[in-house]
Amino acid sequence: MIAARGITKQFGDFVALDDVTIEIPDGSLTALLGPSGSGKSTLLRIIAGLETPDRGVVEIHGRDQTHVPPQRREIGFVFQHYAAFKHMTVRDNVAFGLKIRKQPKARIDARVNELLEIVGLAGHQKRYPNQLSGGQRQRMALARALAVEPRVLLLDEPFGALDAKVRADLREWLRRLHDEVHVTTILVTHDQEEAMSIADRIAVMDHGRIEQVGHPRELYDRPANRFVMGFLGPVSEIGGRLVRPHDIVIELEPSPGAHEAQITRIVHLGFEVRVELALARRDGVFAQLTRDEAQQLEVSEGDIVWLRATNALVEAPDPA
Amino acid sequence: MSAVALTRRRPAARSGALALGISTLWLSVIVLLPLAAVVVRSLDGGVGDFWDAVSSRQAVDALRFTVLVSLATAAIDAVTGTLLAWVLVRDRFPGKRIVNALIDLPFALPTIVAGLTLLALYGPTSPLGIDIAFTQGAVLLALLFVTQPFVVRSVQPVLIEVDREMEEAAISLGASNRTVFLRIILPNLLPAILSGAGLAFARAVGEFGSVVLISGNVPFDTQVSSVYIFKLIESDAPISAAAVSVVLLLVSVLVLAGIRLLGRWGARHDR
Hints:
The complex is a heterodimer. Chain A contains nine helices and 18 strands. In chain A, the strands form four sheets. In chain A, strands 6-7-8-3-9-10 form a six-stranded mixed sheet, with helices on both faces. In chain A, strands 13-17-14-15-16 form a five-stranded antiparallel sheet. Chain A is of the alpha+beta class. In chain A, β9 and β10 (about 210-215) form a beta hairpin. Chain B folds into two domains: about 1-40; about 45-270, Orthogonal Bundle (MetI-like fold), CATH 1.10.3720.10. Helices cover about 75% and strands about 0% of the residues of chain B. Chain B is built from 14 helices and no strands. Chain B has helices at about 5-10, 15-40, 45-55, 55-90, 95-100, 105-110, 110-120, 135-145, 150-160, 165-170, 175-205, 210-215, 225-235, 240-265. In chain B, α3 crosses α14 and α4 (about 55-90) packs parallel to α9. Chain B is globular, with a radius of gyration of 22 Å. The interface of A and B includes residues 50, 85 and 148 of A.
């Protein structure tokens, strides 16, 4: 298990981490999810030893690593901008950690070949990083980090510099890789879809604190607070309660507990139909319907309807 | 990241014919014509005279000393210049901006004044008690003074741009600070170090003002080619002077080409 306990870190006046405690189970793929400035990268760098906490303890497999230099933490770190050794070939990049450990050449060769096979760069051994695409560079960086058989793999926004298509592919690929290699992995991301699609566990962070930790579905269905709910998906507010737009039922007749609203716009997004509504004294609400539901309802813009929340998640604290 | 490498990779927009014309004219008038004139002048007395002028013992000794002391200058500059650039980029200390501004001063000081100052400091009347005037070491010292900024100024911008995450990646893979410097940082600085050292070498080969006084101009010992050439002109042998100059130029071109090749080899996979 990887644990960070009571971690506090300040940069000047800015509190990057405020008494953060988190435990990462062995073999899991945990995402640290949060907006920029939430402290997620700082926490990752503290676990790696690239940053020193002002207070708190980092443990890897039960042993205090707080004052162990990063060289001896047996971690693999992958950076957003690849951090490729651009003066070395792909092969030398991947072999770097093994050469430092003075492994016999035959073993290095075997290990490098194996890893390049796994990451799909077997034919690119002699290339230099500038001859690779961004996605290939990042896969090389992953192979480089995995080469030393780290106890934990730390990924800092690893797909952040890639375009959407490559990002989605690599995301899938990383999930499969994790299922094969099983190395405990911590992934920092600001992309909730990325976190939801590949992580076993998500820790949502904001303002240097962890707001909630749990399984992606648990976080989506039972968010601890308004921030977590809003960060994981769209939110509409009806009658002082926060609901997911797909949990709103539109009715044509008033009934107890339903809230009157006027349809301002209907947007067809393929399978999903987004109905934008103005509530009395409140606007900016929308409901998500499937195409079939929308057709059955037979409403149009300007109609008065009644809204009912089937699954309100969080009570809005102050209906201001 | 030389300009050559960049234009090779993505062809820049064509410069207009006018710009090309002006560049050619300018280079011709300022550089090529004078160089050609020196070569022509050196052959005024025929090939035999040319050979006599450049193969005299004094000429050969001066040339050998000039090239060796210039190479030594470039090598020392490479090390100290890299160190200075490192301190200026990576370290924090009070007065850093002032030190940074001081780096260029050897360029601003007339070299003859530099020579006088060095003679006063390290000559027979040295207040420090160090008298190395009229030795080969004194020549080296003078050359180090006037060439000091080259490597610093070529390495500094490259060092600023070196990807810190590359270093962190190496550290996370277990590299010690020493290994990070030798295996990660130095290879990335090498092209800049070589190009700075190349400039320092070229400047040292032709340097006159700062060495003319402190070298004492002892033939077969501290006499450098530039001062020897000056003596030839003074003793009314301009053709011999031109001949020695041509050889000096040739040697410089060869050494610079060698350094450039090394640099290109070092930067072959720069992006």
